[in-house]
TrEMBL record:
Annotated region described as Disordered, given as residue ranges: 75-108, 344-363
Source superkingdom: Bacteria
Signal peptide: 1-36
Keyword Endoplasmic reticulum in record: no
The protein, known as: DUF459 domain-containing protein
Pfam families xrefs: DUF459
Cited SUPFAM superfamilies: SGNH hydrolase (SSF52266)
Keyword Signal listed: yes
Biased composition regions of type Pro residues, renumbered to the chain: 96-108
């Protein structure tokens, strides 16, 4: 510096100012957030040979904020600050829903006859739903009436709550039924009081006493010479309940058949092809519907209708003509409409003339034998083999004839 000052004088000051100005211009005064970068370290030979970490350079951008909407007075002061409203996104039009099937209107119930046959339905909460749907099934049958006597929490275990063996005879005397339907057992998976001891469920003594109580209830109906329909338990969502239902159904079937009754097996109507529990299945019309509630035990409206459908078929078979769906009224409402009024006595009915030699009179123009012969409906051996896999028996004496010859 001193040398530069001595040699140049005032010219040295000018050169020194130019150098300082160049240094100041070369230094960055600041970096904006949009261009700020973080330098990435360079990869050395060791990283290239042995796969060291790779560094990437990236940039950070600040989100753009929209300026608020402002209003000014005449003097330039701000009087109101409001953010600019964003335009709402256009709403997509909802797809049109397919037309829902309309359920046919329920038939109007008819007045029951004085000598209508009574159907007595007894049991627990499942029997209550069965009885209500049986009433709807026979609503148009004046010769059939349904009497439902159920207790939702009852069973054959808790006699202290409701004793069916003691209450059923009074119900039979009151209703005088023509057929008795029993559905009970959904509440019986619990301890049983036998004498002075309490037996656990699934024990040998428990099953022995339970069979006795089932036989006693079925014997009360059989002693009155009444048809008995004992409806079995359906499948349940719980695997343990499902296994117990299978065991209890075996007891119901054996004891009911011993008493001369008929066991109504509804199991296949509420399981799939693999025998597993289903919530949704085919209803009485063959349509997919929800059959069971979310608890995996109770029935929905469609499930109760399907349950009653099993019993309805057997009831109609026992009652015969009394279970006819409707009463035929021989009046003007049921007669077909006449196209013309009958002629008065002594007057001819005007009709079109018909020629007796007209070939169209008998509906044919060809002579006998002109039409092709009808095909023979007898299946050939080839048709039997292709369609059903049946092979005609070999003639007697051939090598593939395996029939044992008759004794001489």
């Amino acid at each position: 510096m001193k040398a530069l000052w001595k040699t140049s004088g005032q010219g040295g000051w000018a050169r020194l100012g130019a150098v300082l100005l160049a240094l100041l211009l070369a230094l960055p005064f600041g970096t904006s957030p949009a261009t700020a970068q973080e330098p990435a370290p360079r990869r050395n030979l060791f990283d290239l040979l042995f796969g060291g970490p790779r560094y990437e350079r990236y940039e950070r951008y600040e989100p753009y904020e929209r300026a608020p909407r402002r209003r000014y007075n005449r003097d330039g002061s701000i009087i109101e600050v409001k953010p600019r409203p964003r335009k709402p996104a256009p709403r997509r039009a909802a797809a049109p829903r397919p037309p829902q099937p309309v359920a046919p209107p329920a038939p109007e119930p008819v007045a029951k006859l004085e000598n209508a046959r009574q159907i007595l339905v007894v049991g627990d909460f499942m029997a209550g739903g069965l009885g209500s749907e049986l009433e709807n099934a026979f609503a148009t049958s004046p010769g059939v009436a349904v009497v439902e006597r159920s207790d939702g929490s009852s069973g054959l275990v808790r006699k202290d709550h409701f004793d069916w063996s003691a209450e059923l005879p009074a119900m039979l005397d009151e209703a005088k039924p023509a057929i008795v339907v029993v559905m009970v057992g959904a509440n019986d998976r619990q301890q049983m009081q036998i004498g002075g001891t309490r037996e656990k469920f699934r024990s040998e003594a428990w099953f022995k006493e339970y069979e006795t109580r089932v036989a006693e209830l079925a014997g009360i109906v059989a002693s009155r010479k009444l048809p008995l329909l004992w409806v079995g338990l359906p499948s349940f969502q719980s695997p343990s309940m499902m296994a117990d239902a299978v065991t209890l159904n075996a007891i119901y079937r054996s004891q009911t058949e011993k008493a001369g009754g008929e066991f109504v097996d509804i199991w296949d109507g509420f399981v799939d092809e693999d025998g597993k529990f289903i919530l949704t299945g085919s209803d009485v019309n063959g349509q997919q519907a929800r059959l069971r509630s979310s608890d995996g035990i109770t029935f929905t409206k469609a499930g109760k209708q399907k349950l009653a459908f099993y019993v309805e078929k057997l009831v109609r078979r026992h009652l015969g003509e009394m279970a006819s769906p409707d009463v035929v009224k021989l009046d003007s409402s049921s007669l077909p409409s006449l196209s013309a009024l009958p002629a008065a006595p002594g007057q001819a009915i005007p009709t079109h003339p018909i020629s007796l030699s007209d070939p169209e009179l008998d509906g044919g123009k060809d002579l006998l034998g002109a039409a092709p012969l009808p095909s023979i409906l007898v299946e050939t051996p080839r048709d039997k083999l292709v369609k059903r896999g049946e092979l005609a028996p070999a003639p007697a004496g051939r090598i593939d004839d395996y029939r044992i010859p008759a004794a001489q």
